[in-house]
């Protein structure tokens, strides 16, 4: 395997709130390789957005702080040196809600051009020209006229295209997309995903895609990291994660969604709700909702362990420990 | 149970402009079935649902509930009268519960409107219902902000169902929720539907979920129902070009299916429903459009109980 373009190790982020300290991200490690798409999936509140915001230096401090870990990007640790000089240049980001992420009082063209003026020292005129061609690249019709318009004159899908144009202005090596299509209709979602894929093919950038929609993951990802309660609980190739789920949470998610391949399958919801991150559980975070929980799960947190030596497939679950009950070791623990 | 006959709703925008939110829609919802209504945002599906429960007036057509023709404009007495039969579950569980009322206040309001006055009896009913929807009777004294999205949606369901209506409009009841919670709410609705013999109009944009829960599926585009039929039939054998493209853009949680997907995404965006022409509403985005599409498309019966409006099917 080549060296990853971005390597995150043991990242942890906390926030001070009136209710106490929230351990939003507890222990996150992943690798992102050049030209690949890594999808981070999880429910709301599991820490997926905080993870990427901390990489981009977008965590407001205080109340937030990165308590440990490292994030190596091009011989630089984003945690110790900060993301200045990287953010917007080598790493571009698009957000969930295009309506509120763009400045309503600035013309679209100026907002795209601003990035180039700040980071690449373009003159305003050069930047304006570049902005128009960027808008054209993201398939906005009549880019010259559209560049003169304000965000309220754009539809949601068009704003998302404009935001992609802005993020790509400096030809970043990594594009971070935080729920880029959640606010959009399926038809527009298909257009935006298609656009991201074709731009990735053109300039070979890597994508970190944050989403809660497993269908979008299946469409876009090469590698998948499943997050739960501030931790990555399973990671692997998209095939491994979908067809050989190794963590009970991932399995539960797959069974909670209707499948059109098996139209008659009954939905199996995951009972309960995620744990309170004010007082993170001492054992496995998923223990209280897990149908396979054992005595050890409640008291000892499982480590990330490889499922298959040959691949990158790993899961954080005691069931994969050699002493856990299995077909070869049919001991039932007393509960 | 519910019959809609040529129902329309126009919003006037002034200066002679009219927004055709719902335009000449006919639909029958048989007793104890689930009809799913799908379409992009702006297609008029919520407006249609809200007209049935009297939250919007209607401009033309008739809506019949059993043998009654519902009034075009609900007066307060009509709301009280029909509320015990027709109920609604709203999309946003954050906006649809009054933050200054406790769960008891929220839930007892509908009972009070139906003439109940005995607080103790009401509190027993509410405690029962909270248990039914998977909450705890102690939650009665809490305020909405103390609950998660899924729990609030359960309160919304209890509010709609506790006066035992026959017909419930579910307006995107799960789109604000996480995947694991969505399945909980869907299963709860399906179970209560069986137990109480409910009839549901299930509005959503998640095609897979609609296919899963509905007996029949209706597809709306710019105020018109363009295809309607048994759910599996519409989903697996779509006839209208729009339905075909919509289903082709619906991503599946399955990497092999996704890799094999080759269909071009649908072009353009939904056009404006202001003063539309007489022809097919989808013509400007349709890859199969021809000159005949400027005239109103005929409604074609494709197979038993499956209809679609398109010139191509008439040949």
UniProtKB/TrEMBL annotation, chain A:
SUPFAM superfamilies recorded: P-loop containing nucleoside triphosphate hydrolases (SSF52540)
A GO CC annotation given for this chain: plasma membrane
Membrane topology per record: Peripheral membrane protein
GO MF annotation list: ATP binding; ATP hydrolysis activity
Family annotation (InterPro entries): AAA+_ATPase, ABC_Ni/Peptide_Import, ABC_transporter-like_ATP-bd, ABC_transporter-like_CS, Lectin_legB_Mn/Ca_BS, Oligopep_ABC_C, P-loop_NTPase
Superkingdom as given in the UniProt entry: Bacteria
Keywords on record: ATP-binding, Cell membrane, Membrane, Nucleotide-binding, Transport
Reaction catalysis annotation: a dipeptide(out) + ATP + H2O = a dipeptide(in) + ADP + phosphate + H(+)
Major localisation: membrane
KW Iron (keyword) present: no
GO biological process, one term: transmembrane transport
EC number annotated for this UniProt entry: 7.4.2.9
Domain ABC transporter: 8-254
Compartments, as annotated in UniProt: Cell inner membrane
Keyword Membrane in record: yes
Similarity comment: Belongs to the ABC transporter superfamily.
NCBIfam families in the cross-refs: oligo_HPY (TIGR01727)
Name of this chain's protein: ABC-type dipeptide transporter
TrEMBL record, chain B:
InterPro entries assigned to the protein according to its UniProt record, in alphabetical order: AAA+_ATPase, ABC_transp_ATP-bind, ABC_transporter-like_ATP-bd, ABC_transporter-like_CS, Oligopep_ABC_C, P-loop_NTPase
PROSITE patterns linked: ABC_TRANSPORTER_1, ABC_TRANSPORTER_2
Keyword set, alphabetical order: ATP-binding, Nucleotide-binding, Transport
Domain ABC transporter: from-to ranges: 2-247
GO BP annotations listed: peptide transport; transmembrane transport
SMART domains linked to this entry: AAA
Stretch forming the signal peptide: none
Stored NCBIfam families: oligo_HPY (TIGR01727)
Protein family (similarity comment): Belongs to the ABC transporter superfamily.
Protein name in UniProt: Oligopeptide ABC transporter ATP-binding protein OppF
């Amino acid at each position: 395997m080549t060296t990853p373009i971005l390597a995150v190790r043991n990242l942890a982020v906390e926030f001070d709130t009136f209710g106490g300290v929230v351990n939003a991200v507890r222990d996150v490690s992943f690798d992102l390789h050049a030209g690949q798409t890594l999808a981070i999936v999880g429910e709301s509140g599991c820490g997926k957005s905080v993870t990427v915001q901390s990489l981009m230096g977008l965590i407001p401090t205080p109340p937030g702080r990165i308590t440990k870990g490292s994030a190596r990007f091009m011989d630089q640790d984003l945690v110790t040196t900060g993301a200045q000089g990287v953010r917007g240049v080598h790493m571009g980001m698009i957000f969930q809600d295009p309506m509120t992420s763009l400045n309503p009082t600035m013309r679209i063209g100026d907002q795209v051009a601003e990035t180039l003026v700040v980071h690449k020292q373009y003159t305003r005129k050069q930047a304006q020209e570049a902005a128009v061609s960027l808008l054209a690249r993201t398939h906005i019709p009549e880019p010259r006229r559209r560049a003169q318009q304000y965000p309220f004159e754009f539809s949601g899908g068009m704003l998302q295209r404009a935001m992609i144009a802005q993020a790509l202005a400096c030809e970043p090596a990594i594009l971070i997309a935080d729920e880029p299509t959640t606010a959009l209709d399926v038809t527009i979602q298909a257009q935006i995903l298609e656009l991201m894929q074709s731009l990735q093919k053109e300039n070979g950038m890597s994508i970190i895609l944050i989403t809660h929609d497993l269908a979008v993951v299946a469409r876009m990802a090469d590698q998948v990291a499943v997050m739960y309660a501030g931790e990555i609980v399973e990671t692997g190739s998209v095939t491994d994660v979908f067809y050989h789920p190794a963590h009970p949470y991932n399995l539960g998610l797959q069974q909670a969604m209707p499948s059109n391949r098996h139209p008659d399958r009954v939905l199996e919801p995951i009972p309960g709700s995620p744990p309170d991150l004010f007082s993170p559980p001492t054992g496995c975070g998923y223990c209280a909702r897990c149908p396979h929980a054992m005595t050890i799960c409640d008291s000892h947190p499982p480590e990330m362990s490889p499922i298959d030596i040959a691949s990158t497939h790993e899961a954080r679950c005691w069931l994969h420990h050699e002493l856990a009950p299995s077909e070869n070791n049919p001991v039932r623990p007393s509960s | 149970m519910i019959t809609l006959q040529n129902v329309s709703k126009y919003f006037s925008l002034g200066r002679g402009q009219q927004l055709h939110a719902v335009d000449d829609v006919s639909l029958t919802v048989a007793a104890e079935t689930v009809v799913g209504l799908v379409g992009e945002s702006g297609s008029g599906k919520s407006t249609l649902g809200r007209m049935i429960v009297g939250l919007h007036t209607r401009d033309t057509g008739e809506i019949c509930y059993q043998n009654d023709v519902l009034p075009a404009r609900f007066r307060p007495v009509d709301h009280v009268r029909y509320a015990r039969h027709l109920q609604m579950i709203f999309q946003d569980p954050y906006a649809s519960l009054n933050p200054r009322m406790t769960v008891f206040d929220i839930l007892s309001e509908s009972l009070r409107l139906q003439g109940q006055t005995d607080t103790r009896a009401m509190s027993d009913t509410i405690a029962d219902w909270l248990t039914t929807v998977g909450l705890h009777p102690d939650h009665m004294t809490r305020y909405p902000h103390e609950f998660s999205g899924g729990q609030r949606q359960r309160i919304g369901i209890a509010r709609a169902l506790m006066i035992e209506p026959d017909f419930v409009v579910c307006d995107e009841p799960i789109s604000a929720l996480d995947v694991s919670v969505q399945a909980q709410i869907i299963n709860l609705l399906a179970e209560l539907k069986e137990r109480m013999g409910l009839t549901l109009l299930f509005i959503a944009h998640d095609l897979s979920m609609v296919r899963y829960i509905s007996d029949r599926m209706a597809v709306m585009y710019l105020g018109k129902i363009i295809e309607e039929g048994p759910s599996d039939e519409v989903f697996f054998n779509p006839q209208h070009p729009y339905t075909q493209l919509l289903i082709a853009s619906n991503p599946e949680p399955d990497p092999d299916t996704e890799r094999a997907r080759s269909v071009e995404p649908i072009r353009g965006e939904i056009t404006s429903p202001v003063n539309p022409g007489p022809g097919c509403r989808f013509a400007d985005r349709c890859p199969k459009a021809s000159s005949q599409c400027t005239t109103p498309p005929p409604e074609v019966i494709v197979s038993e109980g499956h209809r679609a409006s398109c010139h191509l099917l008439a040949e």
